[in-house]
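Record 1 of the preview.
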Amino acid sequence: AATIVTGAEYSMPTAANWRELNRRCYWVWTSNYKGRKVNGYIVYKAKTKADRGKKVLFGDTPSALYSLDDTHIFLPAAGSINDSRCYNDGKYGIYLSASLRDNSCYCCYLKSDYVGRTVTDTRCYGRSVRPVRK
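->
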C-alpha cells in the first residue's frame, strides 16, 4: 500500500521498524497537533539515552528539551474503518506493518494512555499506513 500510494522509494514498515521506533524514540501524546485539534503522538528522535522509549501519556508534562522545531513524525489517532465507517477516530490508532502472521499482520497500537508493542491484527479492517523511506 505504501509503495503504490507514495512511490517506489517508500515501503511499509516492518514489525522490527515499529519496535525500533517504540524503543528508540521519545513519544508525546497531544490533543492539538500544530493547533489543528488532532489527537495523536509526536514521535521525536530521542536526545538522551534516558529519553529512548519514553512515553509521555495524556496529562503528563513533556520534557522542555523537545519542541515542534525538532525532527519528529506525527502519528494521528485515526481510528479504523470497518464497513465503510470510521470508528474511534481521535481515540486510538492502529498502524499496519509489512510483517505477516497467518491471516494477520503485526501493527503498532496507540492511544492517549498507551503505546503498544507490536501486536497482531486482522488485515481486513481499514488501518492506518505510515510509509517509511527505503
